[in-house]
Amino acid sequence: MESRNQFQVCFSPALYKLYASEEQIVVVTDILRATSSICAAFENGAKAIIPVSSVEEARLMKEQGYIVASERDGNVLDFADFGNCPLNFTKDRVEDKEIVYSTTNGTRSINMAQKYSPVVIGSFLNLSAVSQWLIQQGRSVLILCASWKDRFSLEDSVFAGALSQQLLDSGNYSTICDSAQASLDLWRLARKDLIGYMQKAAQKSRLAAKGLDYCMEYCLTPDSSTIVPIYHEGKIINNQNMEMKSNGS
Question: From first to last of its 249 residues, what are the pLDDT tens digits of the chain?
C-alpha cells in the first residue's frame, strides 16, 4: 500500500515552477554554503536571518544599519560585514542579532519558494532534525536544490538523496519522482565516504580556487545541529524559538 505522503526532488531553481504547490513543504538546500551557514548562525544564537535576493537590497539594508553577510561567486561584497562561509557566523558576530543575508544561489531559491509554500532550511548539519520535523508535519515534501546558477549541483543533489532516504525509511513517505530516485542513487554511492566523494564536485573546485574550501568538512558533517530554520514573515527563524512562543513560554 502506497504511503499517504509523497516527496519529490527539484534539481534546479530553473525547474521550480514545474513543482510549485501550496500543498507541500519545501526544503531548500545549498550545501556549499548558504544553508550550512544559516544552520551555523542559529547554532551560535542568531535571532533571525533576513534573506534578500539582490545585491541592491543587501546594500540598502546595510545603509539602514543591518549587519550584512553577502557574497557573489564566493567573493565578499565590498559593503558586507562578512561573507558566506559558515565559520564566519561566530557567536560574537551573530548572537541575538538579525543578519541580512544574500548569496549567489541559496537566498534566491529561498525567496522563490516562499511565494508558494512553507519553507525550511536543510543541510547535512541538521539532516535528521529536518527529516523528523517533516515527518511530524504529515505533508508532502519538495526538496529544492539551490544548485549553482541554475545548473545541476552534486552536493545539493546528494543531500537530497540523504533526506529522501530518511523519509523513505520512516515508512510515512513514498515517491514516484525520477529526480528523487536519482538523488537516492547518488546518496548510496556517496554515503560511505561523503567528504571523499565530494572532491569531484564543481563547487569544491570553485571554492578551492579562491582558498575557501576549508569549510568542506564542516558542511558535510551530519547532525551537528537539531535546529530547523523556518521562513516566517520575511525572516528565517529558529523553529525551537517559534515552538516556545506558541507554547506560551
Answer: 454 799 999 999 999 999 999 999 999 999 999 999 999 999 999 999 999 999 999 999 999 999 999 999 889 999 999 999 999 999 999 999 999 999 999 999 999 999 999 999 999 999 999 999 999 999 999 999 999 999 999 999 999 999 999 999 999 999 999 999 999 999 999 999 999 999 999 999 999 999 999 999 999 999 999 999 999 999 999 998 766 454 443
Q: Cβ-count burial of 203 within 10 angstroms (0-12 exposed, 13-18 middle, 19+ buried)?
A: buried
Amino acid symbol at 61: M
- Whole-number Å distance between alpha carbons of 51 and 19: 22
In the chain the beta strands, taken as DSSP E runs, fall at 5-10, 24-29, 48-51, 67-72, 75-76, 98-102, 119-122, 140-145, 173-174, 229-232, 235-238
Distance CA 33, CA 74 (A): 9
Can you give the pTM of this predicted structure?
0.95
* Of residues 146, 167, 114, the one with CA closest to residue 37: 146
Cell of 68: 550584512
Cα-based angle 62, 234, 59 (whole degrees, multiple of 5)? 15
